[in-house]
Amino acid sequence: MVFAGELAVSTRGLRKTYRRRGTRHVAVEGLDLDVPVGGVHGFLGPNGAGKTTTIRMLLGLVRPDSGTMRVFDQPVPDRLPEVVARVGAIVEQPKFFPNFSARRNLRLLAGGIGADPHLVDVVLADVGLADRARDRYRSYSLGMKQRLAIAATLLKDPDLLIFDEPTNGLDPAGIREIRQTMRGLAERGKTVLVSSHILAEVEQVADTVSIVARGRLVAHGTVAELIGAKASTTIRVGIEVPGTAGDVLAAQGWTVRRDGDHLLVDGAPGGARVTEALAREGLFVSELVPVRVDLESVFLELTAGQGPGTRPPDDPGAGQHGEHGRRAAAGGAA
Asked: Please, are residues 129 and 147 in contact by the beta-carbon 8 Å criterion?
């Protein structure tokens, strides 16, 4: 499936390998990634799946071995200087002066990148920090620090924002704040590409999703499409005699699995038919619940057995590209 309409990011056949101790390790293998313009796009995969490497290649911090990349239909890294002003990214925790206020930190940054200093208060309001603008950075919670980092990327008023694991280390309140911030940016017409392993959070905030494992794309589409594609008729049955009940249901041609004191039944046309089959044998259920399919269950099914292998960190040799990589980072990240 290729998303209809304009794409903010598109890669084809993207490949990146690293050499360590004389052995070549594949980080990204033939990746085809499409991120539509507008909304939040979740970029999901187990640790070591190649998410950060992909993001670093898009930002010009790491060069691919082969394949093509386009950002707003411009080939990168060749035309990266022409689109970098449209991109804001947080790949690592940005550095702020701990004894300076949030407002002063952003004013210094605005001066350094040539942004309008009047935007400082605007972006602080955008991320919900207007009432804490005069507080010192060191007094901020982790969630507030991450929101300030997002505010820093907004100083250029970018069209595409790329966040790599933005909720790492945050408590539930901080995660909710970041989720609300990303949703708010999308509602303003921005495109947000977020790499994350917190599936429940992504399901709540994302419009579209790409799932990768071992550097390859294994699924993509809208959240509703992915969940719908894996939707099942599994029914959870509570009953006093699960062994006997399991035999009765299996005799109907349905697949029955034990789940502790419960049964999981696949293939039945509905809960009413399950109840009917058991009642004919004088067996009555205490619980009958359809099993809800969510994004996390889809993710786990698609990536089963495809966790991280023995590959190096996502950024070995990121500095090997010298000043070009540093300029790209400065242009695309806070």
From this structure: yes
What tens digit of pLDDT does each residue of 168-202 get?
888 888 888 899 999 999 999 999 999 987 777 78
Residue 23 bridge partners (DSSP)? 20
230 inside domain: no
Q: Are residues 285 and 185 in the same domain?
A: no
Q: What is the pLDDT of residues 231-275, one digit of tens each?
A: 556 888 999 999 999 999 999 999 898 988 899 888 888 889 999
Number of domains in the chain: 2
